[in-house]
Amino acid sequence: MNWITNYVRPRINSIFSRREVPENLWQKCSECGTMLFHRELSDNLNVCTNCDHHMAITPRARFDALFDGGIFTEIDVPEPIADPLKFKDQKRYPDRMKAAQKKTGESEAMLVAEGEMGRTPIVAAAQDFSFMGGSMSMYVGNAILAAAERAVELKRPLILFSAAGGARMQEGILGLMQMPRTTVAVQMLKQANLPYIVVLTHPTTGGVTASYAMLGDVHIAEPNALIGFAGARVIEQTIREKLPEGFQRAEYLLDHGILDRVTKRTELRKELVTIVRMLMGLSPQVVGDLPAPEKVDEPTPEVESEPQDAAETEAAAT
After folding, report:
1. Is 306 assigned to a binding site?
2. 51 is in an annotated binding site
3. pLDDT tens digit string along 32-80?
4. By the number of CB atoms within 10 A of the CB, which of 71, 156, 246, 270 ranks highest?
5. SS3 state of residue 102
6. b vs e for 186-206, b when ≥16 Cβ sit within 10 Å of the residue's Cβ?
7. The pTM is what?
8. What DSSP string runs through 170-236?
9. Where is the composition biased (Acidic residues) (predicted)?
């Protein structure tokens, strides 16, 4: 036995040994580089506490913060035909769908739900950019139609959170046909005199911008969100001119009258409640209930008898 190689390690080394730290405890802000603790970041709705950079957020996390108590009911969406074009590039379309479903835990790129927001009944739909770039598919078209039909049925406003790179190329013309379909859905809300509010998040581009994302009664955007149809590089190459700084960003569009508001995500819920109640002709939001006053037993007042006449007194005596 070689005593140099075969020895018992001192136990004290285990005290100072390196411990494995989970990778998801900290997240680096892509804008300022600050390391953010995951709980602090989620409590702030994925907004950097140092520079206010708005990071991506899933539809479920958004709905948890939007609806009262995070309570909402999902609305069923009709399932479209799977892989109608038998599309294949580097991967088959069904394989890409399975990979996206495994990555996000969702079945498709849009989530539709109903519930109360500030005690105001609403229907909401949100796109998930992490699911194949939030691309507009037949399912997304079905989801917006289902949301509009449910809003008309319940006479509720519809709030839509857009985040997409355009139509889904794997569905070809069928994906592009969702532009007129969703336009019809928005028109249903208009005819029913129900508000349709669009919140444009980063990024909202392509056919989504050319259809339902720009047909709202009120357009609100998150700070520094990229919003446009064609890419800035394509536009520069087409017109052969240098685009101004901040082109296609939310603040630029607000200055040029395309948007109504640019609102931080942490302040968005309060503003949506105010706008919805105003458009629906409802009273101002009830922030909280005051306790009912305690009931105090009041003493019963004594009733004084009226003096009787002398004749009545004498008759009563006899």
Report:
1. no
2. yes
3. 999 999 999 999 999 999 999 999 999 999 999 999 999 999 999 999 9
4. 156
5. helix
6. bebbeeeebbbbbbbbbbbbb
7. 0.83
8. GGTHHHHTHHHHHHHHHHHHHHTT--EEEEEEEEE-GGGTTTGGG--SEEEE-TT-BB-SS-HHHHH
9. 299-312
